[in-house]
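Q: Is it fine to ask for two folds in a single conversation?
A: Yes, each is treated on its own. Send the first.
Q: Here.
A: Result:
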Amino acid sequence: MTSLQSPGVHDERRHATRCEEWLFTAWGLGGARNQRGLNDTGLISGYRIVESEAWYWAALTRAGHPLLYVTDWHVPRRADPLLVKSAGLWAEHTCDAPMEQWTVANETYAVALDDPADAVGRAYGVPTALSWDLEWYAVGPPRAVPHGYEQPGVVHGVVELGGSEALHLVEAPADRWHRWDEALPPVELPDAFAHTGVRAPFAFPDGSLADWVLTPDGWRQRTPPMGV
């Protein structure tokens, strides 16, 4: 297992391992919370290189709206390792300044799911245009986590939704992970024992599951395990 004592700028480079992953999250988009103090809106953008292919997954969650859900588990590798292109999907991840700034963008069709639990099955839903152009800025130093590092930040940018008003992000709280190893489990988050927020579950091709829910403190992991 990769173990870092003190992550540094050099760790932003690509690593010669079987798996390498970049994961970006944000929540409380626009600063809005509902009457229970929960964040209403959040997003997830993940990309993992696995040997000759790659996995891409993303989600936009909004209270009172279907989960907008994107997965492609067979993305062809390209010369630019952080460029994602497949049928109906374009995404790009650019390190503008190591440990300081990233640009995260996509343009695709998401599946709108009324029941987030459907995401761990066949995920049938209404195709919905989705794109975002986000600037991720660090607000603190990275810290070592299993297989890599995590760093807190904020996000500025725009999320475009087919047929709906765009979401404008200004200083939305955010987090990111960069991890690498011969195999990777889902990112470990603190547990959420009260599952009352919007939810975004992902069932990965290796059989692992990331089942996340929004809380007043951002994304957390649903636990103990519940039926999906």
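Q: Second one now.
A: Result:
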Amino acid sequence: MLVDVANMYHSAKNLYSRKVNFKEILKTAVFGRKLIRAMAYVVKTESGEETNFLEALSQQGFEVKEKDLQIFAGGAKKADWDVGITVDAIKMAGNMDVIILVTGDGDYVPLVKYLQNTTGCLVEVIAFQKTASAKLVEEADDFINLSENTKKYLIK
């Protein structure tokens, strides 16, 4: 399971003004299967205010991968894990039956197609339908819409 934390955080914040319950997403994703790895990809801010959140993710069973927020000369900020998640998915695919992507980002469509056609892996996507790429949802072998149970998947 590969979690694009920033994508999920911003989706929940923009749609519901709430935070994501990653522990419940992990339970739903695994449901009766053997979990091999759950990786959460996060961006560290300059202030370090996310420290407690990162510890909580780790305690819930996630392997946390951190990256520093990039701030460019003009003030623009960049903080995505698309390439890192893609590389990890491809590296792990040979040893997995299923790869679960927790993101709605349409940039992952080529990855989904590659995993399905080259490795034979099933690819499941978990995201909020309203902020998920329609093409990503269409290409996935299975899709779980977190918006169908906001009480379970969101924290006030």
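Q: Anything structural to flag on that second result?
A: Two points. The CA atoms of residues 80 and 93 lie 21 Å apart. The chain has seven helices and ten strands.
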